[in-house]
Design goal:
427 residues; alpha/beta; Rossmann fold; 2 domains; six-stranded mixed beta sheet; six-stranded parallel beta sheet; 13 helices; 34% helix
Length: 427
């Protein structure tokens, strides 16, 4: 099979700086326009800035002054070769210049297959419209998985009675053949039911008793499962998936406050997705004033928890003290890059907007006695280069499913209000 030529779009590099090493023995082209775009992204604390810097370092290691004239070997990173193409047309937009590079190579190397690789859907469509082959960068993608962490089972009345009476089942193979670690179950029999989960440490199907966290009680079975996982010391990593209004963030924050004596600090964070494609630096005010709009959902949830108690209650005083003494820290995700977390309770919201690498970076920073809660909705991705198969949340659920330290619960029932529920059903 003849070698292919892959033209790399900027979006690929911002997703994975090592992408150029993923094309086996084929040739990789980096248009000069891409390098110019990366030059403007070198400075900053976001993942895209990190990826830009990493790529430039990689390119520097095996490039020479002739990289625009001759193919350069990428050994030892890859068996392929790389070249920078300096064909520019200032009258075209950056995206169109990159497509134009592909068309130029297609004309020059008529015997080879030239493919534009981009995570920008519109870019790929435009390329095809101009008879240039295009494709998505598929490394890091996972197959769509509907794993919810919750299984509903119809079973005999004896099984439900035994579970309710003893609190656990050791002989469960007749009901559940191969449960995943920390998987949750709704066992039903006629007019009786019981909530349970597979305790991977004891090897038993264990009944779940309803719990509360700082006055917040579960309103449905899924929320009951979520609270169980959030308050379980043996489960160090929890993902909560579901649309807005299902209680993901509220339950996570409530659990963190309930368990605050077990941890030195509570970190609550989310990625900053720019508004109208404007970076945070364009927003008025100092650092705190810039990020406050992004962090308001967290403060709203904390205020909701406080609203369940009188102003002078011990609970409200405790929460105020936690905030004042900075035991609860609400901060953008970019501001905690590079930190190590020992004895911390960490909540990461809107994780569908994170790349797999960002998720990995967060979790690998966890030290002893650290618990990480990651929430999000895979159907509400706000970044242009991620989708349901390539985002960090999907990646995490797929990779960690079945691990003893991990639990996942998909929440589907909105509990915000009757009006919100009506909107879910009607719109």
């Amino acid at each position: 099979m003849s070698q292919k030529i892959f033209v790399i779009d900027t979006s690929i590099i911002l997703y994975d700086a090592r992408a150029i090493f993923s094309f086996e023995e084929n040739k990789v082209v980096v248009p000069i326009t891409v390098l110019q775009e990366l030059d403007g992204l070198k400075k900053g604390n976001h993942n895209k800035h990190y990826q830009a810097r990493e790529f430039i370092r990689f390119l520097d290691r095996f490039s020479s002054k002739n990289i625009s004239k001759f193919w350069q070997s990428m050994k030892p990173y890859s068996k392929g070769k790389i070249r920078v193409i300096c064909d520019e047309n200032k009258e075209l937009s950056n995206d169109d210049q990159i497509i134009n590079t592909g068309l130029f190579l297609k004309e020059k190397y008529k015997e080879k297959e030239v493919i534009l690789v981009s995570k920008d859907i519109n870019q790929r469509v435009k390329a095809r419209a101009l008879s240039l082959l295009s494709d998505d960068y598929k490394k890091g993608k996972v197959k769509k998985d509907n794993y919810s962490g919750v299984v509903e089972i119809e079973t005999a009345k004896d099984h439900v009675d035994l579970l309710n009476n003893k609190g656990f089942l050791t002989d469960y193979k007749e009901i559940i053949k191969t449960p995943n670690a920390n998987e949750y179950f709704i066992l039903k029999s006629n007019d009786k039911s019981s909530l349970a989960y597979f305790n991977s440490f004891s090897g038993k199907i264990q009944k779940i008793e309803k719990k509360s966290a700082v006055g917040i009680r579960a309103k449905n079975a899924q929320q009951t499962f979520a609270l169980n996982a959030l308050l379980n010391d043996n489960i160090k990593l929890v993902t909560l998936e579901g649309p807005a209004g299902t209680g993901k963030t509220l339950l996570a924050i409530a659990a963190a406050i309930e368990l605050q004596n077990n941890y030195d600090k509570i970190f609550i964070s989310r990625p900053l997705v720019p508004l109208n494609n404007k970076d945070i630096g364009y927003l008025p005010g100092n650092e705190k004033e810039k990020v406050n709009p992004y962090m308001m959902p967290f403060w709203d949830n904390i205020d909701f928890i406080k609203s369940n108690f009188s102003l002078k209650s011990k609970t409200n005083q405790k929460i105020d003290a936690l905030i004042k003494n900075e035991k609860i820290i609400v901060t953008p995700l970019a501001f905690i890059r590079g930190r190590s977390f020992v004895n911390k309770f960490i909540i990461i919201d809107e994780a569908q907007n994170l790349t797999p690498l960002e998720i990995k970076t967060i979790i690998t920073r966890a030290g002893e006695n650290t618990k990480i809660i990651i929430t999000g909705d895979k159907k509400q991705i706000d970044t242009p280069y991620l989708d349901e198969e390539s985002n960090g949340l999907s990646h995490l659920i797929k990779r960690f499913k079945g691990d003893k330290l991990y639990a996942h619960i998909k929440l589907t029932k909105g509990e915000r209000s009757m009006l919100a529920n009506l909107a879910f059903s009607k719109l």
